[in-house]
Amino acid sequence: MSLDLLIHGGSVITVNRNFDVIENGMIGVSGDTIALVSKQAENDPLPEAGRYIDARGGIVMPGLVNTHTHLPMTLFRGMADDLPLHEWLNEHMFPAEAAVITAETAGDGALLACAEMLLSGTTTCCDGYFQEAAVAEAVLAAGMRAVLGCGVIDFPAPGVPNPAENVAHAAAYCRDLTGVSPLVTPSIFCHSPYTCSRETLTRAKETASKLGVLFQIHVAETRFERDQFLAEHQKTPVAYLDGLALLDKNTLLAHGIWVDAVDIETIARRKASVSVTTESEMKLASGIAPVPEYLAAGVPLGLGTDGAASNNDLDMFREMDMTAKLHKARLLDPTTMDARSIITLATRRGAEAIGLGEKTGSLETGKQADIIILDTRRPHLIPRYSSVSHTVYAARGSDVRNVMVAGRLLVEEGRLLSLSLDEVIDRVQAIGKEIKKQATTESTEDTEKEKK
Prior knowledge:
Blueprint: E1 5-13, E2 21-30, E3 33-39, E4 52-54, E5 59-62, E6 64-69, H1 85-100, H2 103-119, E7 122-129, H3 132-142, E8 145-152, H4 166-177, E9 184-190, H5 198-211, E10 214-219, H6 223-233, H7 237-243, E11 251-255, H8 261-270, E12 273-276, H9 278-283, H10 291-297, E13 301-303, H11 316-331, H12 339-346, H13 348-353, E14 371-374, H14 387-393, E15 400-405, E16 408-412, E17 415-416, H15 421-451
Parallel strand pairs: 1-4, 1-5, 6-7, 7-8, 8-9, 9-10, 10-11, 11-12, 12-13
Antiparallel strand pairs: 1-2, 2-3, 5-14, 14-15, 15-16, 16-17
Helix pairs in contact: 2-3, 2-15, 4-5, 11-12, 12-14
């Protein structure tokens, strides 16, 4: 067997169907693929390889999968915090996006997001935003794996000033991105059932189905949204989408908080997937998605961070920890959402939810070599009785030491290799100063108008 790389000397959490954990395990990589997963016998020599990485007793596991985010929204991190979703979105985010988001700024924000995710162990993400062609360029430059959804909404948006062209624009984007790289997969992202008309939703889903790409949409995120649909359509948001034939195995529903038992059964029956973004949902006081109930019904489900404007970070380790503990407290049951289940949601099941389950999400021969190594010689990780438990309840994104995507080392000893981090930070800092300057000017103008 010819190996380009061998990772050894670590505790390997495979997240395969048996959830095998291999102490003193080895992962062999050939090209972009995992070629060997085994235990290193105590007195046997290591297999021959072009390069060796000693995990030094750390944790080796699949790269994390962030199933819902908006990469360029790193530009708005910490802006207009502590507000209800509708006020935050309509009075702050939408105006800011209209004023600031161009292909250049979207690309810079996405580069910063990729840097943050890679350094904290996320190797795959599912994004939905505007100026998505520029986002795709950033993701490719960073070397990540991603499903990238072109935003569709029924009012002027960055890159699509005429809403009548929104679906056609998304279709052209998908065709242009198809085949560009095995790392990036196009998608269509309808913002929500309350910002897209029935006609737009139907056309977008039909287009996604024709092109064979994932259809993404926010749904049932707030009680206000649910009550609005019950009043206007006499249906829950999920029932409304189902009535339009939008739910199937190629549909990803983001949030899915305000659902009832019938909604959950409908989602399961249609084989649609759900992405839960616990920290963002808590911060915006949107509610708590019924994750255990989804899992009991067999709904394909993954974890996401949402955008950095509403989280306010992209650290999936924090997302795992918070999701596990929140549902234990909600159900008054310390056994629910155990560490093994949570890791699976953040890796293999997350990959399955966005259509990449055959490629990534577990350490198995034949799968893509998307691998991370955690440095466990940290005070908060000593002693270690269970690598699985530590990964969820004690580890942090900052503990990630090495990151590989498709056999390419992107983070080595905590240092980002694929991008110049200082350059990315400087560019986004400059954009942030302009946003702050513009906000200050507008605030002054509003004050002057009030005086008059």
